Amino acid sequence: MNDVWRDAWVLRDDGLAALVRELARGGRQVIGPTVRDGAIVLAELDDAAQLPHGWGVELEAGRYRLVRREDAMVFAHSAGPQSWKAYLHPQRVRRWTADRNAGGEWTVQGEGEGEVPAYAFLGVRPCDLRAIAVQGRVLGGGPGADTAYRRRLERAFIVAVECTDPGATCFCTSMGSGPAVGAEDRGYDLAMTELLDEGGHRFLVRAGSAAGTEMLTRLPVERAAPVTESAARRVVADAAERMGRSMPPVDLHALMAGSLEAKRWDDVASRCLTCGNCTMVCPTCFCTTTEDVTDLTGDHTDRWQRWDSCFDLDFSHLHGGPVRASGRSRYRQWLTHKLGTWHDQFGESGCVGCGRCIVWCPVGIDITEEAAALAEEARQAGEAGRARPAEHQRSAGQKGGEDR
Question: What Cα–Cα distance (Å) separates residue 309 from each residue in 75, 140, 275, 361?
Answer without folding.
Answer: 30, 20, 9, 14
